[in-house]
Amino acid sequence: MKKIDIHAHFFPRITQAEAGRLDPARAPWLQVDAGGERGNIMAGDSAFRPVNRPLWDPAARIEDLDATGVQTQIISATPIMFAYRYEARATAQWAARMNDLALEHCAYRPARLKALAQVPLQDIELACLEASRAKAAGHVGVQIGNHLGPRDLDDDHLVQFLTHCANEAIPVLVHPWDMMTDGRMKKWMLPWLVAMPAETQLSILSLVLSGAFERIPASLKLCFAHGGGSFAFLLGRAENAWHCRDIVREDCPQPPSAYLERFHVDSAVFDPRALRLLVDVMGVERVMLGSDHPFPLGEQQIGALVETSEWLDDAQRARICAGNASAFFGIDA
Questions:
Q1: Using an 8 Å Cβ cutoff, are 25 and 95 in contact?
Q2: Does this model's pTM top 0.85?
Q3: Domain architecture of the chain: domains with CATH
Q4: 156-167 and 124-137 are packed helices; what angle lies between their axes, rounded to 10 degrees?
Q5: Separation in Å, CA 272 to CA 2, 307, 313, 325
Q6: Are the C-beta atoms of 123 and 93 separated by less than 8 Å?
Q7: Which of 62, 77, 196, 237 is most solvent-facing, going by the fewest CB within 10 Å?
Q8: Would you state the pLDDT for residue 327?
Q9: Is residue 83 a contact partner of residue 91, using CB atoms and an 8 Å limit?
Q10: How confident is the model over 171-190, as pLDDT tens digits?
Q11: pLDDT tens digits, 278-308
């Protein structure tokens, strides 16, 4: 079965000196050990996350894809690369450099590796310029963080960017980052396990309940990572609230379920029961294979969840594994 993995990350092998041109104290760079197999994403002098070779080495990435039967993978920035906190023009230069390096990564096997661009989201003009430049250079879409400081996706600034992407036929993947926490989630990767799904649900509902979807062209191709977070499981709660409380529906002319056709989600939910609920809620035509490769919290055997879910028929598996992504991004496996 053909497989297109739409949710995978990369981090280029940049030095501390190169990152230091953005910010010598906190900008991310890659430290690789002597054996070349493992490394650390660094933030200035501090270790941020241990990583392994497929993150930066396209040959190792292709080995992983061959081992799991994936024909095509779409890579995107590791979210620490977003650089939304910095001055916009410096971030624009950084984003352009990271986007060029992403295309260099994909050039190793251009038929099998595709890239999503990052943009300086803090400046709408620069973000739109880089999104369009990246599309012309060969990127198949953009990846953005799910918020910009206190601004959620319903903010006029971010709605303008999404509208630009709709008008320019640039698909958008929304990825959670900078997860909400007040310090109570100290251990066990709880920000990733609790706050990350909540961030994604917050992003979807901010677009729905604010009426932002009414202002964004319906042509926008929009996808949320990690199965849309907790959205599918809690849609009933939002639906009930819309019907029962005028404060919930005051800016939203239709119930939340009416907006399901406005976005896609990936399949990175790791449990067949969760996948079944996700497909029941979203529809098989709006779920695409996503792995979060090559991170430890990703699906280690890419596509296994979809392939082994016996309640899906062959045609449904084919849609989730490749067909939906092919149409969404305009690519073939």
A1: no
A2: yes
A3: 4-8+54-329 (3.20.20.140)
A4: 30
A5: 20, 10, 14, 20
A6: no
A7: 237
A8: 98
A9: yes
A10: 999 999 887 777 788 888 88
A11: 999 999 999 999 999 999 999 999 999 999 9
